[in-house]
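Whether sequence alone determines local backbone shape is best considered at the level of individual chains. Part of our work consisted of pairing the sequence of a single chain with a tokenised description of its backbone. This step matters because it turns folding into a mapping between discrete strings. For completeness, the protein is quoted in full, as a sequence line and a line of structure tokens:

_____
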Amino acid sequence: MSYDDKFYGFTNDEIFGSIMQNKRFCKAIIQAVLPDVNVVSVESIDTQKELGTKSDKQSKSVRLDIAVKDQAGNLYDVEMQVNNNHDIGPRMRYYQSSMDRDTLDRGEPYTSLTRTYLIFLCAFDPFGRGKLRYSFHLYDDEDKSIQLKNNAENIIINSKGSGSSGADLLNLQKLMNDDKIETIGVFKEIQTQIQEYNDDPKRRNLMRTAELRMKEETAIARREKNTVKVLTATIQDLSPNIIEPGELIYLNIQSVTFSSNSKQSMTFIILSHVFL
């Protein structure tokens, strides 16, 4: 399939971001995921909001796909996950901690932590159980009636799953799978809007450019990761007495492009040897 024929659906980054910036569409999608929660009118929507530790530039920052705040003060982070990197648990843990750190000011009590909902829309089943919706809270290991109420809920929507009777959630699933929505309503409107985006030559060009850029960045990251593995193995082979099992090696890789018209680059590798 050529780029001219390709359909960019809801899971595409550009499409997802554009749809979720519409407050009515955004509220409908969140409400479909949280049928038991009264999602109050959306107050603000931030796309690609970056969170991180300002005092420690070595800490890994987080860029939230869609950060939403409603008029009741509740926070929602909606993430689109297309590729299964087998890191869903640690990823959600880090995103949750970043959200919490960003909402509590110095001196405030922990009870002031905002209620948060971390929602991952996945185009795959991270657990292989076939469920459409997974919801997670903290419970006692032996007595599930004892819940650690931390005002946080993590939800995963598996677009390949089944088992829901909620019409809105099923429509969201169709949206993620590019299946036709027959029922008239907000999800039908969203699908119509997505088709209009695909019919717009300027938007298609933006989506195509963004897709190519992402593929290039992924390829660069993969090459750098392989470089780390090869270099580490080489150092261990050449200097077995320097690097012992259990020690940590940090490789800081920086690629520098010679000129704006050249794709040639040189990789500088800084080795930090840390003894445990």
